[in-house]
Amino acid sequence: MRSFMRKSGVLVWIVVAIVLALLFGTAKVGGNPLVPVEIGRIFATFSSVFGQFLSFAIPLIIIGLVTPAIADLGRGAGRWLGITTAFAYISTLFAGFLTYLVCAFSFPKLLSGFDLANVKEPGNALESYFTIEMPAPVQVMTALLLSFVVGIGLSFIPRGVLRKGFIEFRAIITKLIEKVIIPLLPIHIFGIFLNLTYTGEAWVVMRTLIRVVAVVLLLEVAILLTQYTVAGIVGRKNPLRSLVTMFPAYLTALGTSSSAATIPVTLRQAKKNGVSDAVASFTVPLCATIHLAGSTSKIFAFAFAIALTQGLSISMTVWVGFVFMLGITMVAAPGVPGGAIMASSGLIASMLGFNETQVGLMIATYIALDSFGTATNVTGDGALAIIIDRLADGRIGAEGDLENTRELSFDGMAYLDKVSVDGVVSPVELAESAARIAGVSGALASSDSRVENAISPVCTQE
User: Number of structural domains, the chain?
Assistant: First the structure.
């Protein structure tokens, strides 16, 4: 059994953590919870401290993965950055307009006589014994912009000292993910779900909005199936198999309610779907911030439900404009719990005319089910990674440019293996890197040969 759990990976551990949390939090012995509050607070304390650590590490993960990934793309980085952003925005718009059509058709009947006036924001039953403030070195959006600027700059200077520094920094971040974050995630998720089962207010919110929740969950299933159908057609992969492969990321996001905190798992599962390391390291951290199709669908559905039940008159033109603006706002939303609704609250008030009470109701209903939208977001990131990887077709960054081919001939893995003491690079990674560089060198030699053949007749004539 111990050997099975050790080899089964994070998926089984996450499932076990969720089941145990629900069991221990709801089971009663003599009218008291099976797990006393004092012990529950220990897990709440761990989740609080680990959550602070994740908030600290998220910008570093983005910088450590995105910057060298963009640099590895070469001078085509700017183009692929734009293509990925465009696909993320299109996916977000699709989710918004699909939700609008479903809500406009079904909610007037489903929510007839439905009252949301008494819904309150869910509370926190298990307080941590202490908290440790771990301020992030930079904000998430700052880290993302910094990664773009430095990464694109390094694509023009691929063999410099700074490039080598970011290769080493990527190795540090990779080890942080593999040795610290992934092993501790199940305990963190256990604490979150245990806390959720101790408080009754969150379940009151879910029961009150059960009809909206049912529609939203069906919509998110439709969104994911559409995304992976398109990804399967473009990437020539089995859509259902690819979707199932991303299931660990979905479960992790259910526990963390954070796209950014789920990056390590999303990244690993995207690679298991056959996405190349370069594309996965580029698209997954990027899409964790700019691709929030699930959150867009959930925000729109709740906003439509509240407007309908509160008697607000909002025209179709305003709703359509709200979808377009919400898609842009989601690009700027931080990939942390509740980040999407916080980023869009100003838009909800200004465009839809929600007052302070209605905005507070919107935040309460969203936070109660934040994790489901986040899970849809990160799972959809895997579909975009498949699409981008297929469009790149192994040529991402090279684009047939002889000068760019020379730039990409720098073997970062061989360099890292050379300077490391314990061998940070595995023999498999080193062999794959050598094969890849050999292919680039072959392309370079072939290009040089074509140039020489072109020049020789001219020299003979002279």
Answer: 2
